[in-house]
Amino acid sequence: MAPTKDTPFRSADMSMVQLYISNEIGREVVNALGELGLVQFRDLNGELSAFQRAYTKDIRRLDNVERQLRYFHSQMDKASIPLRKLDLDVETLAPPTTTEIDELAERCQGLEQRVSSLNESYETLKKREVELTEWRWVLREAGGFFDRAHGSVEEIRASMDNDDAPLLQDVEHNTGAADVERSFSGMNIGFVAGVIARDRVAAFERILWRTLRGNLYMNQAEIPEPLIDPSTNEPVSKNVFVIFAHGKEILAKIRKISESMGAEVYNVDENSDLRRDQVHEVNARLNDVQNVLRNTQQTLEAELTQISRALSAWVVLIGKEKAVYNTLNLFSYDGARRTLIAEGWCPKHDLPLIRSTLQDVTNRAGLSVPTIINEIRTNKKPPTYLKTNKFTEAFQTIVNAYGTATYQEVNPAIPVIVTFPFLFAVMFGDFGHAIIMLCASLAMIYWEKPLRKVTFELFAMVYYGRYIALVMAVFSVYTGLIYNDVFSKSMTLFSSQWEWDIPENWTEGQALVGKLKDPNYRYPFGLDWRWHGTENDLLFSNSYKMKMSIILGWAHMTYSLCFSYINARHFKKPIDIWGNFVPGMIFFQAIFGYLVVCIIYKWSVDWFAIGQQPPGLLNMLIYMFLQPGFIDIPLYKGQAAVQKFLLFLAVLQVPILLFLKPFYLRWEHNRARAKGYRGIGERSRVSALDEDDEGRGTNGRPSGESDEGVGMIAQGVDHEEEEHEEFEFGEVMIHQVIHTIEFCLNCVSHTASYLRLWALSLAHQQLSAVLWSMTMGPALKNGKGIGGAIFLVVIFAAFFCLSCIILIIMEGVSAMLHSLRLAWVESFSKFAEFGGWPFAPFSFGTLMEENEELKEYLG
Amino acid sequence: MANGWSIFIGLAIILAMCTAAWVFSPKGENQVLWRSSLILAFVSCYLMWAITFLAQLHPLIEPRRSDIRKEFVHH
């Protein structure tokens, strides 16, 4: 019965498998399965915390390597060295061996030490450089003070009340200079020179003034270039200051204050010759420091550049390795047999592939013990795995955004591939806009490869949905032709079915009414262009589009409802067919199917030829419910009887919908009970290993081999797992009542909901008409001469941009959302259960795609 | 000449196209995808065309306009 292949029609057949992997090749096996990406492992160590697991040590180590790699990256950012991104399409990374990973870890360790020591020495040197620069500035600026001050020594001396003993001479600055008699020390004046941040100068001055009670003379000058603060790497503007004061203690105090204010005090000689020597010396040292600094920087950059070549690959390798160990942590270890035991889900049809992969790994490792893979029977609900390809991926995504389909139910994305774009097109029907959209989507598909690298988020989203856009555009071209709309204008592709009925003495401005050219000719494709621009255009097109919305809605819902039959048959639940599908279908068709038949019948009758009044279908439907048997204006003979019968049929379905399924289920349950069957176990059987843990010996299975290691696995695996549900009539009944009410009301509200097709297509058409009449219309009418031509070009640009932005992008998005709703709500509610859980296999591919951190390393 | 019979001619054409889509869909695991998508697309398009055609088959109202210029009155 099961299909031989997995098709997109249902989710793939899944099997629970158990793997016995020799401990030595555990890593390699997981690596190979990660490349394959087809197995979702279950956690067999649920009761162990993350720290107690076997491979936590390895993960820690890899975390450390990861940290080091991030450190390199940040250092590269700092030095603005570009990262060479890894393009996984071009180069593939061979799965690394353990030794390779060890080597990498060691190498990272070494590199980290080297980089950080280089960094350290760079920082020390930088600090030294700043100090020397400051010193140079102090020497230069202070020199200026001195030169100026020397000229006025005598004045200072005279002004100072100097009664200190010569013993208190400033020893420090007494350097036995040539012109000692004119020096400051000669008059007991000492000084402190240094550098302070400019924003602190005011506070510094004030504090000095207060503590020394004004016994100082301060001179300062701004350093024109900002100096780099080595600790923060930010430029700081600083001032050079020289403070003259007398008395050793006062000078010491000034020093202390300067230091506490964050100023750097430098040694400056009073004597100008010595100072000149100092300047030379400082310059020489500064040169040396700068040389060394440059070398250090170069070495660091060379080192980082070398790292930058391989960094991406390393990050990817380590990321994969970590994922492998995290997966290994899910496995259970059987100490006695030195094997790892893993459990997981995989697609049944891919089992041979998995087997051969495992075989390969074992062969490569040269082990005699094969890796065993066993399929186990389980009553757990398998995950939903819907295979996609390039084309269906985006469609599947918009379906999955609503929910995960139940395992093996009809994939709701199958009808969506056509119905979603088609309903979009019904709302978006404009040939011109559709052509632009078609070009855009074709361009995206033609330049598929280069465009994939674009990381701009908004574009990436549109790019992801390029095939949806393509199908939408193709259908929009078709509906545009049907509506006969190109940028709100119409095309005269075929000869019209109408001609103007011209009265004898007709003058321009008088109203004209159309008449049929030929009773046997009708406009063959789409709307007759003669309607365009007429006064009663909307009257006609609204009636047409409303009826079309109802018919399309009816078709869409009937089609969707049929899937519930397919689902019921697939799950072998005939009661769902007889208790849900059949009465539901009859109910729906008796009311809305009838309405659709009436619409079509009314169209097909030539009411003028038979000389009867055409009935209003809306009134007919309302009277059908409110006054069964009353016919306002007859549509056909025997209408009253047919309508009464249909209404009766519809009403009759309600109790069937309500009671058939619950009572049948109860009867079935009671019959089973009476025959002595019980519910399937109090606990669901999780795996084959379950038997070892409780029913050891009692179930007759030879369980002597099983030991603690194995027993441990089954214990506590998913304790939260739902118990097998006991049949409860009340619950089933409530569920069915809700379903019935929902279904009957939804038939009405969902049909009405399809009127959005009319509303949105009307809005789109009117909006584009307004845009034309505000831009191109007047420009074409009034433009004369060169000026008119230029004006027309400008207006056309505006028209085109507005068309693209408002009518294609904005209207397109709105039509898309409405179409999405029609798929999600109106269609899916008819058949899909959405009770599944998604299959998330362990795969390096998805790891690379989903990890944000890795993304920046991948090209 | 396009008259009421066109609906059935169109239906025949569409049925032929659907059969062709069923028969010639590429084999493989995506065959069901091809078949369902193509047939659904054909039927949807036919439905829309047929609705439009039927709506104009026996029109209940005629186009009316009063801004026709003399030169275009016979077009």
Structure description:
Chain A: Essential component of the vacuolar proton pump (V-ATPase), a multimeric enzyme that catalyzes the translocation of protons across the membranes. Required for assembly and activity of the V-ATPase. Chain A: It is a multi-pass membrane protein. Chain A: Pfam families: V_ATPase_I. Chain A: It comes from Triangularia verruculosa. The radius of gyration of chain A is 43 Å and the shape is extended. Chain A has helices spanning 26-36, 56-78, 98-150, 153-159, 201-211, 248-260, 272-328, 351-365, 392-400, 413-428, 431-446, 448-452, 457-464, 466-483, 537-570, 574-604, 617-626, 639-674, 690-693, 708-714, 729-753, 755-774, 776-782, 785-831, 844-850, 852-855, and strands at 14-22, 40-41, 189-197, 217-222, 227-229, 234-236, 238-246, 264-266, 332-334, 339-347, 372-376, 498-501, 512-516. In chain A, α10 packs antiparallel against α24 (785-831) and α21 runs antiparallel to α24. Chain A is an alpha+beta fold and 859 residues long. The longest helix of chain A is centred in the middle third of the chain and has 57 residues, at 272-328. In chain B, α1 (6-24) runs antiparallel to α2 (31-57). The mean pLDDT of chain B is 91. Chain B has helices at residues 6-24, 31-57, and one strand spanning 64-65. The longest helix of chain B is centred in the middle third of the chain and has 27 residues, at 31-57.
Spell out the key features of this protein.
heterodimer; A: 859 residues; alpha+beta; five-stranded antiparallel sheet; four-stranded antiparallel sheet; 26 helices; 13 strands; 58% helix; extended; B: 75 residues; mainly alpha; 61% helix; 3% strand; elongated
